[in-house]
Amino acid sequence: MTRPARAHPLWLAFVLHRLSGLALALFLPLHFWVLAQALTAPEQLDAFLRLTDNPAVKLAEFGLVFLLAVHFFGGLRLLALELLPWPARHKTLAAAAVALAFFVSGTFFLEAI
Amino acid sequence: MAATTQELQVSVWRGSDGAEGRFDTFAVPAYESQTVLDVVTWIQQQADPTLTYRFACRVGMCGSCAMMVNGTPRWTCRTHVKKVTQDNHLRIEPLRNMPVIKDLVADMDPFFDKWVGAEALHHPTATRDDAIVPVDAATPERQAADAGIECINCGVCYAACDTVAGNPDYLGPAALQRAWTLLNDAKDGGREAILDAVSGAGGCHNCHSMGSCTHYCPNALDPMSAIAGLKRETVRHALRRKRDA
Prior knowledge:
Chain A is mostly helical.
């Protein structure tokens, strides 16, 4: 009956951390499968790698790097929150995690195009 | 206090949980200055005397009038109507994550049972015959305890917590914060009992640090950081126990 009251920065940081983790977990098996083709089917791998010159794939890679970076920095934030005594600026740290993730993935994207 | 011709549309939860309950809507006169508790009281006194709700002090000291107001857990006595109305409409419900006794009265028994479950109760270290030992306010432990000691058990954090919603056994932010203040209290002798209680299945490690407890605490306390303190202390304690074994 009661709609929960949620949309505040740390709750959104929690959701972002979980969703990025899930997305990365789904990505990793595919990633390893493609890498395994280096041994099992090199021609197929080369064909696939040529796909990555496509701008749409570059954009998807930007998304991947963002997910990885935001999960990494978000995880560091949680470790700091739970293992260091009283870091009071939780919202600042959450915002910093997102900002750093944008910086890393943005730099990657600019290098890639 | 001047009455205006304007009226608020107020939907109030009636009956008990789930399918057995419903919203009743009342038109309540809008005043320049009124709290959500004033609105609930107006309905009970002027429109429907069978409306059941709970309050005592009306000034934010007793913690008994907390309800969900437009989906947000609040002390109704300290919530100005103007700050929370949406399109001239208020939706008032009993606190989330608790069984409903009737209308706006939530059953707080499970909430208080969890305080006991978390060993969030005083464990004496002295008798009345012992001399009173002064408390040193400057120690870091005392300051950690003082940071959370103003909790008045209103249940707002418990109603805000999604982890409580997902796991009925989770002790919740209020009980765990009190356990943390006692853990840091030089006059509390229950260290082992507290650490055992808060590291169990429903304990502090269930917390996902979503921070709704801290965000919505009307007393501006920080249960999320208190629970983080418990996480640190339980891990340290477990490592030490392993080393000493």
